[in-house]
TrEMBL record:
Compartments in which it is found: Membrane
Protein name from the UniProt record: Peripherin-2
Organism expressing this protein natively: Pagothenia borchgrevinki (Bald rockcod)
TM annotation in the entry: 20-41, 62-81, 101-130, 254-275
Signal peptide coordinates: none
Any GO BP: cell adhesion
């Protein structure tokens, strides 16, 4: 007995074909959107590559681009089949392709599910890459004359301004590195010399942050130097006063940006899987309804559509038997080849 049979007349078949055609073209638009988001994600990763120490993975955006292209192509083909389904002559040429097409759709849904899972699971890898990359970016901030790091200062400054963040974890990360190049330090000045000599590693450390950490929304002019020295500023206490620099670290800000993007894309792909599954079920009903017409020459006659020719149990049992026979055939061929040698 067929699984989930439904009776169809001409009017129902026409409505089903029209509805499927609209859903398929909606899937095409969603595929274009996924493709565009994949390109955007790839560009953003390239743009922030220095912040990730050039170790970012492009697996997810590459898969998104592939999935978007496949979604557009697969859905456009399905839409064309639905458009021609009510014309017996045109539908005849598509009929032999329907079974391979539905199998292809099943495989494509598995690929989309894998891509959606990666969108959620790869966020931890992005977090670790950002943590290490930003740590090194702050360390190399001063190396404006070093080949390969000339634009690190500009990149990090623009990142802090754009994402309203400061440092890796917070602004105190700048206290632990020398972020002013020796080229701009007056070594003849006793204060500078004492500060350098007092450090074990010979670094010029200070409780200051770059200008890009300043919050322009603060009513007070930016205090970026001597942040922990209350006597250096009038009416100032760094322990109780809200500083007029960004308090959020760039790792948190960038991770929030990328994770929200990956979550949104993952949800969109899950929605696409639902659309594709709906398309597959509808196309199967439409194809079987056209095949089981009592009088193919009379378009007004009734027919029956179904998802599976047999019940779920029987279908899986048949599939298991076919796989067993295929495996047995391969083993026989392997044995004959061994005997021949």
């Amino acid at each position: 007995m067929p699984f989930m049979p439904v009776k169809f007349n001409l009017q129902k078949r026409v409505k089903l074909a029209q509805g499927l055609w609209m859903i398929y073209w909606l899937s095409v638009i969603v595929g274009i959107l996924i493709f565009s988001l994949g390109l955007f994600f790839k560009v953003e990763l390239r743009k922030r590559s220095e912040m990730m120490d050039n170790n970012e993975s492009h697996l997810v955006p590459n898969l998104l681009i592939l999935v978007g292209l496949l979604a557009g192509g697969v859905s456009a083909f399905g839409g064309k089949v639905c458009h021609d389904s009510l014309d017996p002559v045109k539908f005849a040429k598509w009929k032999p392709m329907l079974k391979p097409y539905l199998l292809l759709c099943c495989g494509f849904n598995v690929l989309m599910l894998f891509t959606a899972l990666l969108c959620f699971l790869m966020q931890f890898a992005v977090y670790l890459t950002l943590a290490e990359g930003l740590k090194n970016s702050i360390k190399f901030y001063k190396d404006t004359d070093t080949p390969g790091r000339c634009f690190m200062k500009r990149t990090l400054d623009m990142t802090q301004i754009e994402f309203r963040c400061c440092g890796n974890n917070n602004f105190r990360d700048w206290f632990e590195v020398q972020w002013i190049s020796n080229r701009y330090l007056d070594m003849s000045n006793d204060l500078v010399k004492d500060r350098v000599l007092s450090n074990v590693e010979g670094k010029y450390l200070m409780d200051s942050v770059p200008f890009s950490c300043c919050n322009p929304g603060s009513p007070r002019p930016c205090i970026q130097h001597h942040l922990t020295n209350n006597t250096a500023h009038y009416d100032y206490d760094h322990r109780i006063e809200e500083l007029n620099i960004w308090s959020r670290g760039c790792r948190e800000a960038l991770f929030a940006y990328f994770s929200s993007m990956m979550n949104s894309i993952g949800v969109l792909i899950l929605f696409t899987i639902m659309l594709e599954s709906l398309d597959m079920a509808g196309l199967k009903y439409l194809a079987t309804a056209l095949e089981t017409m009592e009088d193919p020459e009379n378009p007004e006659c009734e027919s029956e559509g179904f998802l599976l020719e047999k019940g779920v149990k029987e279908t899986f049992a048949d599939l298991f038997v076919k796989m067993k026979m295929l495996r047995g055939g391969n083993e026989v061929e392997g044995g004959e080849a061994a005997e021949a040698t």
